[in-house]
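R.M. (postdoc): so does anyone remember the format we settled on? I'll just put the structure tokens first.
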């Protein structure tokens, strides 16, 4: 069962009509992609085919909280939704390596890249729904050796410290970089990398 809590921390006059809504269908509790809001009334979530309990075969379900959920697209393994824009991966083999990435306005997605054995991609920025080739991400990480958490487009990023090496084991202070700022103007936040959860 998928239960979604809507705006529990808002004052009573600002809350929507329902605080807790129940889809009455099975949703995966172990997916690394939690339910995500597409808009004020629509939730996307992982489930099994035909809402059956089956974590080996993922389906992407969509639920307008004013009605009934439905399977949006079968065989979707990774997905991200932001402001009505969606990105998802549909594998073409049982290992989930070869496949196609789709992106676009919800309901109008088009293929954006084809993964092969030699060229795979991953969703590296789940806040902005950005996908990049694994090779490109490895090269970038090797060049900078920084653990970066991207914020919303135009808001900058958090630098958690070294990605590899002895420093990566330390609770280094998290630094915030504005999108248009230089390294000298980074803001050191009052907590370390081990005190946050990504």
């Amino acid at each position: 069962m998928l239960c979604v809590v809507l705006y529990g921390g808002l004052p009573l006059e600002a809350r929507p009509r329902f605080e807790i809504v129940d889809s009455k269908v099975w949703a995966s509790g172990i997916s690394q992609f939690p339910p995500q809001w597409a808009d004020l009334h629509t939730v996307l979530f992982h489930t099994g085919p035909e809402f059956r309990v089956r974590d080996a075969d993922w389906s992407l379900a969509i639920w307008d909280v004013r009605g009934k959920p439905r399977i949006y697209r079968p065989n979707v393994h990774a997905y991200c939704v932001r402001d009505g824009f969606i990105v998802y991966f549909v594998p073409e083999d049982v290992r989930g390596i070869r496949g196609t990435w789709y992106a676009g306005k919800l309901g109008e997605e088009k293929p954006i890249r084809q993964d092969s054995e030699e060229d795979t991609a991953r969703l590296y920025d789940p806040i902005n729904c950005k996908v990049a080739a694994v090779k490109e991400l490895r090269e970038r990480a090797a060049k900078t050796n920084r653990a970066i958490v991207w914020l919303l487009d135009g808001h900058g990023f958090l630098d958690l410290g070294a990605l590899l090496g002895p420093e990566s084991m330390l609770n280094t202070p998290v630094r915030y970089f504005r999108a248009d700022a230089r390294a000298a103007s980074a803001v050191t936040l009052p907590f370390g990398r081990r005190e946050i959860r990504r």
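R.M.: ...and that's the designed sequence above, right after the tokens. Also worth knowing: Helices lie at 134-144. The radius of gyration is 19 Å.
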